[in-house]
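We were asked to recover a plausible sequence for a given structure. The inputs and outputs are reproduced exactly as logged, with field labels preserved.

PROBLEM: sequence recovery
POSITIONS: 193
GIVEN STRUCTURE:
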C-alpha cells in the first residue's frame, strides 16, 4: 500500500468513562448483554464479549448516522444528506475531482455516484468540465450556488446541533471524537490492506 498512514494508537479513556464504554450506559439496547457475561464469571468468553461489543458499537454508529440523516433531511426538504456530504467534500477540494475519485472516496458504485452528480448538476450546485489532466474524463467542480447551498445547510445543521449540545453532558463530544477518529483510521487501514 503506497502512502501508508502512521496510526497514533488508541486515545486514552478519560477518568470515569470506563463503565459507560463497557455496556449498558442507561440504554435498553445494552441491558442484559453485558450482565449475563459478567455475573459469577459465567457466560460469553472474552473474544465473544469483544465481538458483541464491536457489533454494539457499530450498531450505535449506524443508528447515529440514520438519526443525523433524518434530522438533516427534515430541515432541508428536497435534499439528501448524500448531496450535502458531496458538496462538503468538493468544498475541501478546490481543484475538483473526477466521478471515479468521488465514488472511491464515498465507497459507492460509480453508477450511484453518477446519479447523485446528475441531481447536483441539474440543481446548479456542480459543473462537469473536461479534465485537463487527461482530456477524457470529467472534472466535478463546485459552483457558487453549491457554496451558497453549503452555507444554508450549515446554518440549518447548527440550529439542530443547539438542541443536541443542550442535552449532552459537558465534554461528551470532546471525549468521543478521538476514539471515533482512531476507529475510522483503523477501519481505513483494514480497507486499504
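RECOVERED SEQUENCE:
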Amino acid at each position: 500500500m503506497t502512502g501508508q498512514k502512521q496510526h497514533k494508537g488508541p486515545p486514552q479513556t478519560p477518568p470515569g468513562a470506563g463503565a459507560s464504554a463497557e455496556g449498558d450506559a442507561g440504554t435498553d439496547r445494552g441491558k442484559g448483554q453485558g450482565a449475563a457475561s459478567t455475573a459469577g464469571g459465567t457466560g460469553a468468553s472474552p473474544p465473544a464479549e469483544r465481538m458483541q461489543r464491536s457489533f454494539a458499537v457499530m450498531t450505535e454508529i449506524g443508528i447515529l448516522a440514520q438519526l443525523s440523516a433524518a434530522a438533516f433531511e427534515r430541515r432541508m426538504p428536497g435534499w439528501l444528506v448524500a448531496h450535502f456530504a458531496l458538496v462538503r467534500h468538493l468544498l475541501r477540494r478546490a481543484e475538483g475531482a473526477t466521478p471515479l475519485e468521488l465514488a472511491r472516496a464515498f465507497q459507492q458504485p460509480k453508477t450511484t455516484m453518477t446519479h447523485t452528480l446528475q441531481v447536483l448538476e441539474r440543481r446548479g450546485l456542480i459543473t462537469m468540465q473536461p479534465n485537463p489532466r487527461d482530456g477524457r474524463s470529467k472534472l466535478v467542480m463546485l459552483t457558487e450556488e453549491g457554496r451558497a447551498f453549503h452555507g444554508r445547510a450549515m446554518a440549518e445543521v447548527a440550529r439542530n446541533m443547539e438542541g443536541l449540545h443542550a442535552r449532552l453532558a459537558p465534554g461528551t463530544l470532546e471525549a468521543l471524537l478521538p476514539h471515533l477518529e482512531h476507529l475510522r483510521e483503523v477501519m481505513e487501514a483494514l480497507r486499504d490492506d
